[in-house]
């Protein structure tokens, strides 16, 4: 016996993981551009925004970008001038916000200061939200990393990830059920506000300047736009974002071009980096055809054949003796 099953590989849209992180990142770029556009509101820090592909493939895009910059002649700038790298992942649900780190932050460090700002924003504006610190050491034996910030930590660059997911192995991060219907737009906006306010408080050093703890930087014309965030999420989840099709499928090409255009609307310098696999030693093998049926055969065990053979033998034996008895009975009569 055999059966046939058709597996759909075009069902992975990644709304919460990680369309939510991309949406908040794009809103942060728009809002901080307004602050940087005026000399009176320009902070002393520079912001760099990064969108990388291959997140589900061991953060391959981030890995290649870091390697490219560290191999550059000015690679030391990546270590010396970066206060920290903030990674956003799965931030569209829940009333928890976990700070995932590879090492516990030491006092008087940028990361420790940012976490304090984050806790202050939450305590005064969203007290029902739980903020937790999750420390997970990087296992150098494993070939994969759990969070994107671990790619930076491996190269001694301070990084951390914000997520409402506590366990990096949670099914939500890789489920085909992670669609737009699972996104809570109100909580997505709330988390965006928390991140933006904490970042602004750190960059403007508002705590040391004696500013009120409940001060709001992003309000009025600097507020998060519900319609814009909803449109971004809808657009990001309109097509499955398969990494191997980003440069081939028209819908995927449109997505990448639109994201680049969005960055150019608010950022001064935008660069697109394209990485190709090393055919001699590839990190992972990609296949172009995604929509293919998979045929599966289910075979009965050997015991079933023995049982069936026994039944057939018994049937033939009964038929044989029945014929013999019928012949004998006919002769006697």
Automatic annotation (TrEMBL):
SUPFAM superfamilies: Zn-dependent exopeptidases (SSF53187). It is found in: Endoplasmic reticulum membrane. Its main location: endoplasmic reticulum. Keywords: Endoplasmic reticulum, Glycoprotein, Membrane, Signal, Transmembrane, Transmembrane helix. It comes from the Eukaryota. Residues 12-102 form the Peptidase M28 domain. InterPro entries: Nicalin, Peptidase_M28. Gene3D superfamilies: Zn peptidases. The keyword RNA-binding does not apply. It is a single-pass membrane protein. The keyword Transmembrane applies. The chain crosses the membrane at residues 302-323. Pfam families: Peptidase_M28 (PF04389). Belongs to the nicastrin family. PANTHER family: NICALIN. This is BOS complex subunit NCLN. It comes from Ameca splendens. The lineage of its organism: Eukaryota, Metazoa, Chordata, Craniata, Vertebrata.
């Amino acid at each position: 016996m055999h059966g046939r099953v058709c597996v759909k590989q075009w069902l992975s849209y990644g709304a919460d993981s990680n369309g939510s992180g991309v949406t908040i990142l794009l809103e942060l770029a728009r809002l901080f551009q307004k602050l940087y556009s005026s000399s009176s509101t320009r902070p002393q820090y520079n912001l760099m925004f990064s969108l990388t592909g291959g997140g589900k493939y061991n953060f391959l895009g981030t890995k290649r970008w870091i390697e490219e910059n560290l191999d550059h002649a000015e690679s030391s700038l990546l270590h010396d001038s970066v206060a920290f790298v903030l990674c956003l992942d799965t931030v569209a649900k829940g009333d928890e916000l976990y700070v995932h780190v590879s090492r516990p932050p030491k006092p008087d460090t940028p990361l420790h200061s940012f976490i304090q700002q984050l806790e202050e924003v939450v305590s005064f504006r969203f007290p029902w939200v739980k903020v937790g610190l999750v420390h997970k050491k990087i296992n150098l034996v494993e070939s994969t990393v759990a969070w994107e910030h671990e790619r930076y930590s491996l190269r001694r660059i301070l990084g951390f990830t914000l997520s409402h997911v506590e366990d990096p192995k949670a099914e939500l991060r890789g489920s085909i059920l992670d669609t737009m219907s699972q996104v809570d737009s109100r909580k997505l906006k709330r988390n965006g506000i928390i991140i933006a306010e904490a970042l602004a408080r750190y960059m403007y050093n508002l705590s040391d300047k004696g500013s009120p703890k409940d001060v709001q930087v992003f309000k009025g014309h600097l507020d998060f736009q519900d319609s814009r965030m909803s449109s971004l999420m809808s657009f990001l989840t309109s097509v499955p974002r398969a990494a191997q099709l980003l440069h081939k499928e028209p819908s995927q090409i449109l997505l990448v071009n639109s994201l680049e255009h969005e960055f150019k609307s608010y950022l001064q310098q935008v660069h697109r980096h394209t990485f190709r696999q090393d055919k001699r030693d590839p990190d992972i093998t990609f296949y172009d055809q995604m929509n293919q049926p998979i045929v599966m055969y289910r075979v009965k065990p050997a015991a079933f054949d023995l049982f069936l053979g026994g039944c057939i033998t018994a049937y033939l034996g009964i038929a044989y003796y029945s014929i013999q008895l019928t012949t004998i009975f006919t002769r006697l009569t």
